[in-house]
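Technical appendix A lists one of the benchmark inputs used to test multi-chain prediction within the project. The record comprises two sequence entries:
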Amino acid sequence: MGLTTPDLSVNIGKIKMKNPVTVASGTFGSGQEMADFYDLGRLGAITVKGTSLEPWPGNDYPRTVETSSGMLNAIGLQNDGLDAFVNEKLPFLRQFDVPVIVNVVGQSVDEYARVSEVLGKTEGVHGLELNVSCPNVKKGCLAFGNSPEGIAEVVSAVRSVTDLTLITKLSPNVTDVVSIAKTAVEAGSDALSLINTLLGVAIDPWQKKFRLANITGGLSGPAIKPIALRMVWQVAQAVDVPIIGMGGIMNATDAVEFMLAGADAVAVGTGNFVNPMAAVEIIEGIQEYLMSTNVSDIKQIVGVVGK
Amino acid sequence: MKGIYNCEVIAQSEVSPGVIRSLLRCPEIACQAQPGQFVNVQVSATTTDPLLRRPFSVHAVYPSEGLFSLLYVLVGKGTAMMTKITSGENISVVGPLGRGFDLGNSPDAQHILVAGGCGAAPLHFLSDRLCALWGCKNVKVLVGSRSKDAVLCEAEFISHGVEVEVSTDDGTYGHHGLVTELLKRHLDSSLSTLHSPTRIYSCGPNAMMREVARIAHEAGVSSCQVSLENNMACGLGVCMGCVQKIKGAVPGDTSGTDWHRERVCKDGPVFNAEDIIWD
């Protein structure tokens, strides 16, 4: 087989991605800050920051702490609200040839549904990622995501108000991620993304106090990659919908590992902070991997390990 | 425009105990950086611990040589690894980042720079630019530090023709006490006799800048800017980690809250002191 350019395209529900790489919500803003570095149209999709109905102020400072090969964050989903996103952020994103996935957050089932209904009727939004897994807010999110009943309620409510592709973002902070995943699919989720951050704390031994104002935060970065890989592999065995894998992906090798474990696409999160070019370098690296291993279509490697 | 650059380390030297000056080659940053802006440095490309880049304010630029310098304090694992980088090695630098100082538009303005500790680093770059713009006779620098051997940049400020006053906490050099006492004394003696606007620029510990802001407000100076330093993850404005409480409600907020949070890395690090809610 010659060195022909492999087909990198994948489909996540009705979302057609030219390559399997998107960015993790909350690590890319709404794209404007990152557009200085490269053409956002090179990405397979852009997943923007969590959006709520009204503006959320987020948590007190300090909100981030670096840990060994990772970081804890307790941002608390600070965002300017749905109207600001639709009127001020989305017009910028529409100029790029890239699907936009909006991460939806809420303090109630009704809020998830209302935000999703508006976005479902908004030009330039191609998919919704239901954030039922953020560990850093007191109401909503993980309160829904850590039980099958909560997941089912949110997904069903959103499913009833929009035809957009629904991606449910799962938490690793649960006992049985597989049963949660199955519930999300049964309730109408077209795809799954996993994992969100792992709940953790950091302590300052000299001040003898917690480092985050919120005390607890979500751990991300290379430190969580083995856990994320395990969960992607487990869930891929159990459901028949596309999976977007994430958790410590820093380079193309990491991304390929997730796809071999069963992810149809991947998201780069904390890696964007370390290297703003990470996502596009990963796209190039995946292509080189496929060419060097004589694979003509990216879909051929999905779930190869573990079958 | 900001970018990612592979910068050659020209030299690193210890200018005082635990304080390092790095000279880097990067024509783009040297030409584009403005006083108060910073760069995000990857201290090691071969390890994920530490994982995140380290932000350093720009200390000086030499555009004709394509060089710029950083001045940093050895505080932890990241800066310790930074000191190990030898001349000729390349490091990845993102920058220039953030919003720098507003230098004003009045040729008659008096500019007072108040530095605490390593806060002298960005103010050194600022003083150079102010001198080039308005002349050094209108620029005065107040440098505060713990003790004599920790005073930073005094000789550099003086060599550029800027008037400098120093304070030390332990009285081993200059005024025995806080740099804010120097500021108060200076404003008390000059504001009654000067009719030109006074502009204050400050960088240092938060408690010091809060006091600078209070003194400036009470004296009625026309502008007081402070350069903040918070924990940063991305340095780009996407993670919302390094936020500061700012007066005024965010547009669209109907909750009645009269403040909002802005990003130090993107909306700052330089803010108008009057806008800040000091915790």
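The mean pLDDT of chain A is 95. Residues 216 and 223 of chain A are 17 Å apart (CA to CA). Comparable benchmark entries are summarised in Table A2.
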